[in-house]
Amino acid sequence: MKKSILLLCLILFCMSVGKGLYFLKDGFNFRRIHCLDKQVAEDWEEEADLALAQTYSYIGRGRQCFAFASADDRYVLKLPRTDIYKTPFWVRALPVKSYRERLAANHLKLEQFIRSSFEISFGQLQNQTGLIAVHFGQSTSKGKTLTLMDKLGCKHRLSLEKTCFVLQYKRPILMQAFSRALENGDKKEAKRILDAWVDVVEERARKGILNRDRSFLRNYGFDGERAYQIDVGSFFCDPELKIADAYQKSIRDSVDPVQEWLVQKDLEMLAYLDQKLWLLFRMNCD
C-alpha cells in the first residue's frame, strides 16, 4: 500500500514538474517545431544569412509560431508550430481508422494553407510584410546553425537547413502608436498612422489577396512611416471571386473590426476612416 502511494506521489510530482516547465517556457519545445519532410531551396540573400547568424531570444508565441528577436533587435525569427500538422500518437495507436484519416486530412489541409500563405507573403507581399526569408521544409545541409535562447535563458542550437522558419524585420506594434496618439489628442498623428495602415490593406486588396485573420490589435507594425502586416499565416486567394469583389472583400474583412473598435474609441476617427473607404471604393469602381 505504501509503495503504491509513493509511486502515485512520484508520478504526480513528475507531472507537476513537466507542467511547470511547460508554463515557464510558454509552451515552447523543440518537438513542436520539428521540420517538415518537403525539400525546399534556400531562397534568400546575404542580409538574411547575416541576420540568421545572430542569437535569437524568445519573445512570445501566437497560434501558429513561436517568435524570437535578434540580438540587435532588428529582426524577428518565427518558428512555425509544425506539430499541429501531425496526428497525435494516441490517435495513431487507437483503432479509430475513420477518425484518424479525417484528422490527417484536416492537418494536411491546414499545412497546405499555411504553406500557401507563406508563399503569397514572400512572393507577392514582401514589401507589405517585411519578410526577408521563408524556409518551410528542409534544404541541402551546409552545416549552418540557428542559436536560440528560450524563455528560461537556456541556449539551444538547431540545424538551419532542417528548421522551418520565417524571418522578418522587427517593427513596433502599430496599435500601440495609434492608441497613444488618440490618448494624447494628437489627431494629426493618429490620421497619419491610420493612413499608413489603410495603404498596406489596400495594396494587398489590389492583388486580390484575402486575409483570414481579422485582428487589428496585434497583426500590424509601424516603423514611423510605413505599416506592415506582421502575421503572414492567414493569406489566401479565392478564384471564384471577381477582381472587384475580391478587392472589396479584402478591405472589408480588415476594416470592419477597426470600425467596430472606433465606435467605442473615437467617432471622429471613425468618420475619417469611413470617408477614406468611400473614396477608395469609388475610385476602384471607376
In summary, what is this structure?
The protein is of the alpha+beta class and 286 residues long. Helix content is 49%, strand content 17%.
Report Rg. Answer: 22 Å
First CA to last CA: what distance?
A: 83 Å
Mean pLDDT, rounded to whole units?
A: 83
Listing every helix as H and every strand as E from the N terminus to the C terminus, the arrangement reads HHEEEHHHEEEEHHEEEEHH
Task: Please give the largest β-sheet.
Answer: 7 strands, mixed
| Helical/strand content category | alpha+beta
**Broad shape:** globular
- The helix fraction, in percent, is 40-55%
Number of helices: 9
Number of beta strands: 11
Number of separate domains: 2
In terms of per-residue confidence, which ranges show pLDDT below 50 for 5 or more consecutive residues? 7-26
Fold and architecture overview:
There is one protein chain. The protein is an alpha+beta fold. It has 2 domains: 29-169; 174-285. It is 49% helix and 17% strand. The chain is built from 9 helices and 11 strands. It has helices at 2-24, 46-52, 89-93, 97-124, 126-129, 174-183, 187-206, 243-265, 267-285; strands at residues 55-61, 65-70, 75-80, 131-135, 145-149, 155-159, 165-169, 210-211, 220-222, 227-229, 235-236. The protein has a 7-stranded mixed beta sheet with strand order 4-7-3-2-1-5-6, sandwiched between helices. A hairpin with a 3-residue loop joins strand 1 and strand 2 (65-70). The protein is globular and about 55 Å long. It starts with a helix and ends with a helix.
Features:
286 residues; alpha+beta; seven-stranded mixed β-sheet; two-stranded antiparallel sheet
